[in-house]
Amino acid sequence: MNSSILINALFIFMLAGFIGFEVIRRVSPLLHTPLMSLTNALDAIAVVGAIVLVGEHKSSLSVILGTIAVVAATSNIVGGFLITDRMLKMFKSSRPAAKS
Amino acid sequence: MNEFAGNQLPIEIIYLVASALFILSLKWMSSPTTARHGVWAGELGMLLAIAGTLLHHGIVDYKWIAIALVLGTIIGVPLGRVQMTAVPQRTALSHAFGALCVTLVGTAEFYLRTPEISRFMMAVLSMEVILGSLTFTGSLMAAGKLQEILPQRPLTYKGQNFVNFLLLVIAVALAVYLVLHPEARQLYPFMLLIALAFGVLLVIPIGGADMPTVISLLNAYAGLSAAAMGFVLNNKLLIVAGALDGSSGLILSVIMSKAMNRSFTNVLFGAFGQVQAAAAGAQEAKQVRSATAEEAAAILSAANKVVVVPGYGMAVAQAQHKVRELYDALSKRGVDVRFAIHPVAGRMPGHMNVLLAEADIPYDRLMDMEDINSDFPQTDVALVIGANDVTNPAARTDTTSPIYGMPILDVDKAHTVMVIKRGMSPGFAGIDNPLYYLDNTLMLFGDAKAFVGNIVRELTGGGGHG
Question: Would residue B131 count as lying in a domain?
Fold first, then answer.
């Protein structure tokens, strides 16, 4: 990795960290549990790294480890989105919704 | 040459869109009215990213990818359908899975790339693997404690902090050696094992009541390890997702540590969970006043403003649905009922809100500590159900109390306080609660579910007018 790629990556990390702080600071404590299960599901985007690792088939070790990694991350994606949506469906307002 | 998906322009563009969707997803979580859009944005981003990755020209074999995606879905679906009381352990388990994925990919990359690896890359890779593996075992321990497979109480021994610190130092020292001498591949398994052991020992001394902080902190670690993986693979989407997850976990950790009156450094270095030595003061027989369900119902129906203070004890007694019936019965009589939620009520951040929402209590009745505390002096009845330490006025006044300084719900300022409790045993931290001996406090002794049920019966059956 040459240093310009590194600096680019650090910039992205720094900016995304600040965006994360600003966006998540605004999340109501009401929703902190679904927030955590949602970020958990998003974090499982690591699956793309594992998919390439398995697909490139560079060594049998990398295929074995990568396959387990894809299983673990996929279960987080599926389970995380499912439960977040289930939780959010439960949050109802007492005021009648502003619909026609 | 380690080429990665991110090097192909179409995939880069898909990842860019996915990153934007992830940020929007979290932005929409700010309010319950838009939150479900957030989930959809996240799902769309995820779908795009996975589909785009499958187009990567380096992929020559799809068989194992397909098998793994199917298997992961089969495991994931039941994990998405657990009961709401089990959400904390499910979350801990998914931190473990996420960290496992990162650790395994990091390990595979290590063996593919060494010894021709740049120092910087090796440093980031070590960070990825150390953070990933300690999060993996630490989260498994947390899940075990929450599921009550492992003892909830803290397991401590002398010199524990020293041993933990030593292990971390050894793991980091091995990492530094590998950065300087990446050809010493035989050292890698030791670094991995020590980090795994460190994760176990880090969480073992932590008690059940500290779990909200631990889960948040593990969340932050999981995010940071994923971001480190993004550096290793030069995958910008992964860096973004990891940074978002990491900052989310960090913010929640800070909120939780403030709510438990622990300094943030205290939390960061894993010194939380030390058993607070309760001052075994002389237990003089202080007088408490108690009331029956009938009396409680009469006081509640005469009130204008009632604030219910639920604690984890309410969930343990499975009393949420009875509490909902109480809310209905009182609302029908024109009583204004709200719920005061302490940040650490429950086993993870925000857990109590989910439990009450599941019982169909409207979310605009659920109030944060800051919003409700100023209202207690105008409150006729504060009804405490299964909460103890978070209502203890000693935290405000008694400098010798172990919980002195912890932000609490000022229920003692309400005109009447009613506390549903099994008996006079002290709470989690083993601290006596002066609230119970106040002149305006009535103790309602009994099981939370049965007692609330009795009050509801008095209110609905006994009344008969209207």
Answer: yes
Q: How many CB atoms lie within 10 A of CB A62?
A: 22
Q: Report whether B402 contacts B428 (CB < 8 A).
A: no
Distance CA B54, CA B72 (A): 16
Considering only the beta carbons, identify the residue of B65, B87, B244 that sits closest to A51.
B65
Please tell me whether residues B120 and B241 are part of one structural domain.
yes
Both B153 and B193 in a single domain?
yes
Q: Does B276 touch chain A (CB under 8 A)?
A: no
Please list every residue in chain A whose beta carbon sits closer than 8 Å to the beta carbon of residue B120. 1, 6
How far is B274 from chain A, CA to nearest CA, in Å?
25
ipTM of this predicted structure: 0.94
Q: pLDDT tens, B399-443?
A: 888 788 899 999 999 999 999 988 776 655 567 888 999 999 999
From the list B180, B199, B50, the residue with the least C-alpha distance to B131 is B199
Q: In terms of domains, do B116 and B19 share one?
A: no
Chain B contacts of A88, Cβ < 8 Å? Answer: 32, 35-36, 39
pTM of the model: 0.90
Q: Give the sheet arrangement for strand B381-385, strand by strand.
A: B366-368, B336-341, B305-310, B381-385, B416-421, B441-445
Q: State whether A43 and B241 contact (CB < 8 Å).
A: yes
**Rounded to 5 degrees, what are φ and ψ at B339?**
-120, 130
> Are B351 and B402 members of one domain?
yes
What is d(CA A31, CA A20) in angstroms, rounded to the nearest whole number?
A: 16
